[in-house]
Amino acid sequence: MSAFQQEQQRGTSSSSSSSSNQQQKQKQQQPKTSTTEELLNHMQLALIGGDDGGNGGGNGAMSATLSKQAESVDFNDFFSLRRPKDAASGLNSGLKSVGKGALAGAAALIAAPIAGAKAEGASGFFKGLGAGLAAAVVLPVVGAGVGVTQICRGVANTPEAIMAANDGKRWNRHTREWVDEDLVRDGIWLAQSTDEDIYEQARKRAMSEGRSGIGLNGVLNESMGGGNSDNNSNDNNRNGGGKQVKETQYYEILKVETTASSAEIKKSYYELARKLHPDKNPDDPDAHNKFQKVGEAYQVLSDPELRKKYDSRGKDGLGDIPVIDASAFFAALFGSDQMEMFVGKLQMAVMAEGGSDLTRDETRILQDRRIVRLAINLAAILDGYATSARAMVTPTATLTADKTNEKEEEEKLREKAALEKFEAQMKSIAQSLANASHGPKMLKQIGFVYEKQAEQVLTDPVAGFGTWADLGVRSNFAAMEQNTNRTKTQFSAMKAAFGAFGTVKKIAEEEEGYMKEEEGKEKEGEIEKSAGERDGKIAENIAKEQEGKETKKKPPLTEAEIMQRRAQHQKDVMPHILEALWNVSALDIESTLRSVCDKVCHDKSVKKEVRKKRCEALSVLGKVFQTTEADEAHRNEDINQQLENAMRAAFTPKENADEDDSD
Predict the structure, then answer these.
(1) Counting C-beta atoms within 10 Å of the first and last residue's C-beta, which end of the chain has fewer, N or C?
(2) Alpha-carbon gap, residue 377 to 577, rounded angstroms
(3) Are 381 and 621 in contact (CB under 8 A)?
(4) Are 618 and 455 spatial neighbours (Cβ–Cβ below 8 Å)?
């Protein structure tokens, strides 16, 4: 069993039996011709489950999504019985459970009679009323019981929380326990598997369910005819224990199993080519056709990339279905490609790449792996200062008493010089990052988290390096600033989303009004024509009455004017959409980097003085990032150009991009 499978199994068992465990603890490729508009149309059909040309792929993708969401819901999603960290956490969890119970009971009391009346009429209404009354009594009681339990558990866990925090341990929200941060241990865990192992497992599940891909690419494959049909499913079942593939035709032509190696495929091809060559079969009129089929099958199965496409999408999907690199899209849009060392792969990119095909545990593990990678990278950067500053320190035990003060002053000057050198190096890096798309925004967000996290640890008298002189006020204030910034970002995201919705609604109303105006003109023309046929005099009168109105009507728009209107509409709505996407990404970055900084600043694999130097360097790095602006040439970039560059990056294969760069 791989390291990823072990971690997934551990995470699954931990989440599925959390309450019992907690009680025990208390006791003890690029497309050929597809355009962006076509792709968006296919995505819409797939997501809404409408007619997709008879392939039935869209409904499959959406139904699979809904069924997975339904299966993933458990009791803890409503009434949480997860182990609370301390009294404050227990109180928060308890009050939520009480509120949820009361709201659920009230909702059931209203909804159950209505649903019953729609289903069975008057008798159904009274049945629903009875069920609603029962739920209105039971659910608040259950919520209150869970709430009291959580509050008591939180109070009971508080002494352990105080001791663990004083010892420098951190609270793991997933396992619900106090742990020591150790980047050496985390690095070993990271090396035992790859992110691709997780995605591959999701792809195998998708193929076993009759789908040809996962995430956004899977949706596009389904909507563009890449989904498995019943016949293909039968082909898969016929393979028995072989590799799951969409089609077996090429394998059958070459007379090999779906799990055949390259050498086996090559050997079988040469044998069949000699046997079926037209020169050796002059009496067989179909010999040439058979020989061509063998060659076609070998051409596909001998190429690893073509074979992979054939296995996942079949013969029809070898070249026409586009492959989207969601990571490249968001990286180009928000400059996270250049900043990958600091922010990693954004959650939006992960969701686009894997979507609902990733289980909750798989998504969590991917995020944990992202955090560990970023923590190791950040620690390596900060240790550049921490190591040099520590090397300058001379042990005071070897000094005479009269030289101790002099040496301490000298060491402070050396540390200051080392910090200034580190700051100059980081300014150079920050300047190149600021010139990326959304560079200054990204740097300010990253820098804010770095500075406040460093300040919080350096002034924390419990788990950090502060004293009780200020009673922990500075540390708490730094934490409060981060929470305030997070709330502002959430508000900005909602505001941008509403702005986009309002703009789209306005555009739709304008288009609807224009269509009605065109329909009105057509009807008036038909009336005038029929009137003229019945009576020329009546037609003449109608024409005179309408003459004044016609002069006020706008002439019909030309094709060029219609395209111009649509381009303007896109230009109006795009800033709101990009702003909403950015704010969602900013929330993801902030949440991720807080965990990253926690690991770096509380890493028990290094000594305490090294951790302190890391925090000092982290504060400097945060301030540098926040004060760095883009060069004049990279300011005020066009939004539509940014989107176009992101789309180009998403649809350009990496190997092609590398070739372009080399040229």
Answers:
(1) C
(2) 32
(3) yes
(4) no
And the tokens for 32?
A: 């050929």
Give the least confident one: 87-91, 138-142, 226-230, 538-542.
226-230
Region of 53 please: left (phi>0), alpha (psi -120 to 50) or beta. left
68's CB contacts (< 8 A; 6+ apart) are: 356, 357, 359
Name the residue with higher pLDDT: 530 or 451.
451
For 396, what's the count of Cα atoms within 13 Å in the CB-facing half-sphere?
11
Residue 215 and residue 352: Cα distance in Å, rounded? 5
Contact 30, 328 (CB under 8 A): no
pLDDT at 242: 53
Residues 544-581: pLDDT tens digits? 555 555 444 556 666 676 677 767 776 777 777 778 88
> With helix as H, strand as E and coil as C, how does 449-509 read?
HHHHHHHHHHCCCCCCCCCHHHCCHHHHHHHHHHHHHHHHHHHHHHHHHHHHHHHHHHHHH
- Mind listing the pLDDT tens digit for each residue in 461-516? 888 888 888 888 999 999 899 999 889 888 888 887 787 777 777 777 777 776 77
Residue 264: CB atoms within 10 A of its CB come to 13
Provide the token pair at 208: 């076993």
End-to-end CA distance of the chain: 44
Alpha-carbon distance of 7 to 190, in angstroms, equals 11
pTM of the model: 0.67
Say if CB 481 and CB 565 are below 8 A apart.
no
pLDDT for res 319: 59
Q: Is 486 exposed, middle or buried (0-12, 13-18, 19+ CB in 10 A)?
A: middle
| Residue 322, pLDDT score | 54
Q: Is 172 helix (H, G, I), strand (E, B) or coil?
A: strand
Q: Which two structure tokens, joined as six digits, stand for 478? A: 């730094």
All residues at 6 or more sequence positions from 594 whose CB lies less than 8 Å from its CB, including other chains: 449, 453, 482
Contacts of 14 by beta carbon, 8 Å cutoff, 6+ apart: 21, 174, 175
Owner of token pair 């907690």 = 22
Would you say how long the chain is, in residues?
663
d(CA 126, CA 123): 5
Three-class SS string for 52-70? CCCCCHHHHHHHHHHHHHH
- In single-letter form, the type of residue at position 281 comes to N
Q: What are phi and psi of 556, to 5 degrees?
A: -60, 145
Q: How confident is the model at residue 38 (pLDDT cuts 50, 70, 90)?
A: very low
Share of the chain above pLDDT 90, in %: 23
- DSSP class per residue in 185-226: HHHHHHHTS-HHHHHHHHHHHHHHTT-S--HHHHHHHHHTT-
Closest Cα partner for 378 from 465, 450, 460?
Answer: 450
Residue 154 has a pLDDT of 93
Report the alpha-carbon distance of residue 483 to residue 232 in Å, rounded: 52
Q: Does residue 449 carry a pLDDT above 70?
A: yes
What does the pLDDT read at residue 173? 84
The residue type of 75 is F
Nearest to 585 by CA among 407, 257, 336: 336
Residue type present at position 5: Q
Q: 246 by DSSP, 3-state: which?
A: coil
